Amino acid sequence: MPHPSNIMYLLKVLFLVCQSSILLPVVTGWMWRQQLPRNLRILVYCCLMWLAMMSFSEYAGWAWGNNNGINQSVEILEFWFIGAAYYHTLRLPWRRYFPLIGVVFTALALFDFFAISGLWQAITQTLIFNDTYTTLLKHLLVIGLMLLYFEQCLTELRPMSLWQDAMFVVSVGFLLFYSSTLMLFLARHLITASVGRIVYTGLGVVNLVLHLLLTRAFWLGRHPPPAAVGVVLPR
User: Fold this and answer.
1) What are phi and psi of 157, to 5 degrees?
2) How far apart are CA 158 and CA 108, in angstroms?
3) Rounded Cα gap, residues 174 and 152, in angstroms
4) Distance of CA 222 to CAs 38, 116, 150, 203, 229, Å?
């Protein structure tokens, strides 16, 4: 029977491999960025941001013993990148309010970080900073974007399989990832330390799936799909 320490080591290695898989969509998207439509190019830059901030977070934790503030910056940047991608994807009459929603979200996030959750104290005193209300709000908003996109797909006639549509592939990956992390966020107080390692490794596998789907989406996005025809569904 494997020793528990060996199992923990293997889980850690698996988690690191899953995290490192961000290089797949980064390399693929950067190679073909000139051929990609604007919404997918924005997601390429989002992947670059994830890679840069994740690397800086690991360095800060190793060098200074404190990476507080970095992951919180990712929360805000991630929302803007994904929101911008869907701003150029969704055909909603009220999408012009997306920038305003982004500004309000950023203001609420900063208020949460510094006035409610004590981020500044965590930075200066090297304390553990737990997930905040911003995480919950961001996940709900992003999942809402996915649902709006799927509704748009249902109202259009497409001369191709949805799995050949790059943004559909992206949306499936995002929905899988954000719904999984949302459930983990809501149940975090029920998870013990020993089970937590396994759960976070499972989340790493979900992260790997997202990276693979983003890679496929960038590959599909090299050639624009046939234009969809809008239809009105009977009510």
Assistant:
1) -95, 120
2) 39
3) 16
4) 12, 44, 22, 29, 21
Q: Exposed, middle or buried, 154 (CB in 10 Å: 0-12/13-18/19+)?
A: exposed
- CA–CA dist 140, 162 (Å, integer): 24
Residue 21 lies in a domain: yes
- Is 43 a domain residue? yes
Helices 193-220/23-31 angle, 10° precision: 10
Q: How far apart are CA 72 and CA 111, in angstroms?
A: 12
CA 58 to chain centre: 18
Q: What is the span of the domain harbouring residue 173?
A: 13-224
**Full-prediction pTM beyond 0.85?**
yes
User: What confidence tens digit (pLDDT) does each residue in 101-145 have?
Assistant: 999 999 999 999 988 888 878 777 666 666 678 999 999 999 999
Counted domains in the chain: 1
Residue 7 falls inside a structural domain:
no
* Residue 80 within a domain: yes
Around 116, how many Cα atoms within 13 Å sit in the side-chain half-sphere? 12
